[in-house]
Amino acid sequence: MRLDQSAYVAALALLLSFTPSCARKSAEQKAKPAESATAEPAPAVKFAKVTERKLSPTLELTGTLAADETSEVAAATSGIVTKVVIDVGTRVKKGDILVQLDSSDPALRAQAADASAAQALAKLGVKRGEKFDANNVAEVRAAKESMDLAVSEADRTKKLYEGGSVAASQWDQARSRAEQARAQYEAALNGAAQGWAGLAAAQSQANLARKSVADTSIRAPFDGAVAERRATVGEFAPMGKVVAVVVRDETLRLRIDVPETDASKVTVGKEVTLTVSAHPGKTFKGLVKRVGASLKAQSRTLPIEAEVANADGLLKPGYFARAYVELGEADTNALFVPRAAIGSSGSANRVFVRSGNRVVERIVTLGREIDGEVEIRGNVLPSDEVATERVDLLQDGVDVNVAPASGAK
User: Which residue numbers delimit the CusB-like beta-barrel domain (predicted)?
Assistant: First the structure.
């Protein structure tokens, strides 16, 4: 029993002598990876100061740009398409040929109508441009001369009859010849009038035939651009077929719906500033030209239209636009940050404000854009600085290596 106790004590002493050494080794092994690990350096980020501007209050709205005029150009006559001069996007001037139809058949009809008109004109003995006088027609002149002669003979015979020199039968014959001559003269006058009416009809037919020839050249109704081409060489184009859609786009219409609560603030002549996603950082100017007469029943909004100059062609009909209508009231303070400072988080916009060596995320609402800076509304102060680099990579509360603020000396 004493022997077993001695062996137990010896084993316990041996175990205790090894435990500190193993613990130290284990601690050293655990410490080595920690010592060898290196912390990732904070990203270097530049900041810019929030700027404050005095601006007149505006009404922020959204709308759509539309062409000042849109024309579905249709064929005024029928025919085979022989030539298509335009295509989508072609710039055209008023009167330019868009599509050419076969003109051979209308040209032949025009020649026939011209010949009929010339024949009727020659029959009447009237030269082109002369005023019509039925008494100048040869048949009418001859009938008038015969009538005058018959009337004179009847007058002489009457005097002789009354003097007893001739019989009553001679006077009756002379009077009958005068009446017949007068009737022939009136018939000649009527014939000449009918001939003149026929000439007018023939000339109208000739004019219609010439118009048909002209209509085979389908032309642009105004200066603009071709939005659609709907004709192909070789196809038959019936009268009324739309061969192209032309839009007038030197001036565009911005169509906006104003909420009922703000309807009284928007009047004709108010200035409008707008932006489109196709040209980020660029603003365009317009003026309110038309205000709707009544509200839309379903949306309770008032439709208005502003005209926007588009001589450079940067804007296109159909663009969605964000518009700011100047209300003309007293100026207010507005905060602006560089466009590069704006990030996105889902459907929200955000900026990162400097707080020491960290950044804090602030959700903001965007407003007007002026000279590359964007108006923001939210929990941002005029004294704040916002990150302008790595905005899409930053997170709320992350440490950064602060570079000098833009514009710092």
Answer: 254-324
> Which of 400, 102, 109 lies closest to 235 in space, CA to CA?
102
**Residues whose CB falls within 8 Å of the CB of residue 248, separated by 6 or more in sequence, listed in order:** 67, 68, 69, 70, 222, 223, 224
Q: What is the pTM of this model?
A: 0.59
E strands in 40-78: 44-45, 47-49, 51-55, 58-74
- Residues 33, 153: Cα–Cα separation, whole Å: 150
Distance in angstroms (rounded) separating the CA atoms of residues 75 and 90: 19
Structure tokens, 181:
């001559």
CA-to-CA distance for 243 and 218, rounded, in angstroms?
Answer: 9
Q: What is the pLDDT along the chain (409 residues), one digit of tens a residue?
A: 444 555 554 555 544 454 444 444 444 444 444 444 455 677 888 999 999 988 777 888 999 999 999 999 999 999 999 999 999 999 999 999 999 999 888 888 888 887 877 777 777 766 666 666 676 677 777 888 888 888 888 888 888 877 777 788 887 888 888 888 888 878 877 877 777 777 777 778 888 888 888 999 999 999 999 999 999 999 999 999 999 999 999 999 999 999 998 888 899 999 999 999 999 878 899 999 999 999 998 999 999 999 999 999 999 999 999 998 988 766 778 899 998 899 987 778 999 999 988 999 999 988 877 777 888 889 999 999 999 988 888 889 999 888 765 443 3
Name the 3-class secondary structure at 133.
coil
Q: What is the CA radius of gyration of the chain?
A: 49
